[in-house]
């Protein structure tokens, strides 16, 4: 297990602020992000604009490539804080744990995927999907659950009304669609925008808009770590809230400039288009609070997908005290 964990953590290391010149009085925090995504703009803003540093935190950011691997890293103490879908904390809770994973600061509040059609459709109606081949996301993951929740809401049975393909790895979905698999695909950014700009597909709907507000991506940690380091978690949440307010107030161009260092291999105009799309549909949470109504909506989505054994208590797996203190401190 130890060697596996080391391999996981080494997948995509990005260490920022951990150089030898970092202030000695700063507290080091190891964040594991489930993937590298423009969807997580507030996190990158908190780093690039110095909000973590202002709070005395030295951030080491690692991309842990997948919810399971991110949870393995967190539970095995390979990282201190995870940025991942809040459903993962529910899965850990369902397995039984004396040290539950607790959500303490929300980053995104909608699903981040879009419906992409192979052909241009001027007047789209969800019923058009019936009888089509649909390239979906991995079973049990939040994108797939939000996708199926939306389809059912639109009167479509994913198992009966579609030829549903779910055996393609996340990283290979864009290539599979580009090579001819599927009439429609559920796809994250920036791949959706890239495919659209290249004329290989067309973004026709947003699963984020259709599935409603959810605590989709949240900073979380083990309860024991939070209890041992409440001041550090408070500083961390303060920085996140500063970044959220910055993102809410600044223009698409300014946000794009702030996150570009994390997407050096992506065309700047693509990044800008994705930031605009997510900002326009209000995917970025404007404060760190994990709202109970949104938490219940998340569980409704999981329940509809058959992935929820029993409802998880909001009070057990969510701690909003740090978010509330961050908001109050900002008013002073």
TrEMBL record:
Pfam families: NMT1_2 (PF13379). GO terms for cellular component: periplasmic space. It comes from the Bacteria. The keyword Transferase does not apply. Residues 1-25 form the signal peptide. Keywords: Signal. It is found in: Periplasm. The keyword Signal applies. Its main location: periplasm. Belongs to the bacterial solute-binding protein SsuA/TauA family. This is ABC transporter substrate-binding protein. The lineage of its organism: Bacteria, Bacillati, Bacillota, Bacilli, Bacillales.
